[in-house]
Amino acid sequence: IATKLPKVGTTIFTVMSQLAAEHGAVNLGQGFPDFPVPERLIDALDRAMRAGHNQYSMMTGIPALRQAIAAKTERCYGYRPDVNAEITVTSGASEAIFDAIHAVVRAGEEVIVLDPCYDCYEPAIDLAGAKAVHVALDPLTFAPDWNAVRAAITANTRMLMINSPHNPSGAMLSEADMRELIDILDGTGIILLSDEVYEHIVFDGARHESVLRYPQLRERAFVVSSFGKTYHCTGWKLGYAVAPPALSAEFRKVHQYNTFCTFAPAQHAFAEMIEQEPEHYEQLGAFYEAKRDRFREQLLTTKFKPLPVPGGYFQLVDYSAISDLDDIDFCRWLTIEHGVTAIPLSPFYETPPSGQRLARLCFAKNEATLDAAIERLQKL
Ligand code: PMP
Ligand code: GLN
């Protein structure tokens, strides 16, 4: 049949996880933790199901969870979103991103994305009949070139998407970046979609520059997050979007016919977890920073050159001292011949920088998993 998504195949994460399984490789490709979710969360989920919270929840999410999100947002970013009008619980950040785009972007309009970017953005834009306009981040630092963003804006630009901490690079937007953004968007009708799923995984004492800290940005923004990243449960697929009332109202028109509501027992579990164990998200940065530091030390005993990782749980490595293969062939070869799976960067780009020799390794893993990978990488 005539496909609506001619550019889309199977996601690189699925392709590489399948290849890893076929070849018994240590899978540092697809981003997911291999350690358990907090005990309290499992207990709370179990209790919620036994207490009978097994039917449709409110379309917007249970009040207790929206309350917990509002309180946590205020603690973290100094802004308390309205519980009823500004928070919507979704089936992962993926659903929130899809709903936000479909709620406001019309056919023929343009959405600016910064390459490399996460793979679910462009298909959602395409399905809306809109056009993704790709602006490249710096190939070494992955910092935005705000003048290039300014130059990409047209009368047709409806939305700008940002992602900090950034997948795949871990780069973070600075306060100066946020000031640039305010300046760029001022006086335009452009809506901001801010993907902040790694908001709590930030290192070296840095502050996460949430869009929610900035009134001039949040008044025109959807801010999206995911409990999967914060609570080590990517398979639970629960997230949320915060947006001003008028944007949330449009968002909910899509959400209510897309999924209507999300897995009710987990909403109860997260409400309890957020309120009663704030240490979990407060200490998440330190937890992952220790993993990052240990993994980077180990990488120095290999021929891979690690790039800086300000946030998130991915380590980019330059493999040019090992191979001149392009990144897709290199990641296949590494899996098949050396038993370690990484994710190539080129699928995150419309036009990958020529000659780029980078691969992404996920360090959200037990020490034993990372040790096993390093032992194999040392042989290269
Ligand atoms: N955005 C980014 C940058 C991500 O890395 C991910 C998860 N890999 C998502 C969105 C989707 O999150 P979720 O699994 O909650 O749908
Ligand atoms: N977000 C995960 C990553 O970047 C992948 C999620 C998925 O497989 N859809 O690795």
UniProtKB/TrEMBL annotation:
UniProt keyword annotation of Thylakoid present: no
All copies of domain Aminotransferase class I/classII large, residue ranges: 26-377
Organism: Thermomonas aquatica
UniProt keyword terms in alphabetical order: Aminotransferase, Pyridoxal phosphate, Transferase
UniProt keyword annotation of Transferase present: yes
Stored InterPro entries: Aminotransferase_I/II_large, Kynurenine-oxoglutarate_AT, PyrdxlP-dep_Trfase, PyrdxlP-dep_Trfase_major, PyrdxlP-dep_Trfase_small
Official protein name in the record: Pyridoxal phosphate-dependent aminotransferase
Cofactor(s), names only, from the UniProt record: pyridoxal 5'-phosphate
Cellular-component GO terms for this entry: cytoplasm
Gene3D superfamilies: Aspartate Aminotransferase, domain 1, Type I PLP-dependent aspartate aminotransferase-like (Major domain)
Origin: domain of life: Bacteria
